[in-house]
Amino acid sequence: MDLAARRSYRRLQAEHLHNDDRDKGKGRHARIYRNRKQCLRSARRTIVRFEARIGFMSGSHSEDETDMRASGAKLRLAADTTDEIDLVIQDVSMRFNTREGTVTAVDGVSFEIKRGEFVSIIGPSGCGKSTVFNILGGLVRGYDGSVVVGGERISGPHASIGMVFQEESTFPWRTVIDNVAFPLEVKGVPKAERYVIARKFIDMVGLTGFEQRYPSELSGGMRQRVAIARTLVFEPKILLMDEPFAALDEQTRVLLGDKVLKIQQDLRQTTLLITHNITEAVQLSDRVLIMTFRPGKVKRIVDINLPRPRQGDVVGSDAFGRYVAEIWNDLREEASRGMAEAEDSARLRGA
Ligand SMILES: Nc1ncnc2c1ncn2[C@@H]1O[C@H](COP(=O)(O)OP(=O)(O)OP(=O)(O)O)[C@@H](O)[C@H]1O
């Protein structure tokens, strides 16, 4: 980790501790952070994840990035790059040792994602979706099989991969712009320049005008957009999202889905979305991968042949409805197995 990154990371930790204290106090800051304990806990987890990823984020600037800065922070789109980045998951299995014995979370999962493709993974609760997500993000070790990014087998966080998490992950003590600019701060990009870049991504997620707000002054959907912009700002070629809209109401979820659809179509990023929501999976994806209930295996991959560029109104078409019904047909069987197992263990616990 270089000096600038270490400084940014220490500053973040110090800000976090300081604001944890403020939370107990009175006054404006206490108002801003009141009832934000959950948020602070999540921020702590985010810091830990940043710590895991900060090593590569602090790496020296590539020529492309130098050019980007010289040309007034012009966005470098994934589609403009010549290097072919695919994601290959080959025969991945993961077992956890628990008090009840060994749990096989995922079992022999293989699939690949082409450059610029949008793939969703859908499956019943507990089928290992998040485990796959964490393995791809390099946050879990000790699995069998391999993950290959752009032809290179990875064994930890990779510079090409950006992650958006399900839970609240904004830093509550930082304004929107300082949240979004954080990865650039870690990279050592000067303040004025990082604000220029951050504003572009804030605009892309539709939050222009809210740059100086704190996360507690935003709605849940807006906070999640801040988290998405903060991930996009370091221009990952592959974007992984683990149920990013799970905590949102249905309308916000659909509107945010439209936003993500547009961003992905503009940036042409290779994207993997973990979701429980069939409508969302069909609306956004080129392919939907259905997982079995425990142990999680690939049950089936459905090609979504709906036209692109897709608009939000695609959800009203007959073809859309047929895809939803087809996926639900496969999923129902797995969800029913999950439900039956949960009822059995509840009965055993009660016996
Ligand atoms: N760190 C861990 N230690 C022990 N068991 C774990 C761990 N992480 C996951 N598991 C177990 O592995 C299985 C798969 O969990 P995972 O969170 O990947 O499923 P999921 O499909 O993402 O579930 P959900 O949709 O409810 O979020 C579950 O049985 C879970 O209890």
UniProtKB/TrEMBL annotation:
Domain of life (superkingdom): Bacteria
Alphabetized UniProt keyword annotations: ATP-binding, Nucleotide-binding, Transport
CDD domains attached to this UniProt entry: ABC_NrtD_SsuB_transporters (cd03293)
Domain ABC transporter residue range list: 87-318
A molecular function GO annotation: ATP binding
Natural source organism: Bosea minatitlanensis
SUPFAM superfamilies: P-loop containing nucleoside triphosphate hydrolases
Record's keyword annotation contains Kinase: no
Lineage: Bacteria, Pseudomonadati, Pseudomonadota, Alphaproteobacteria, Hyphomicrobiales
Descriptive protein name: ABC transporter ATP-binding protein
Family: Belongs to the ABC transporter superfamily.
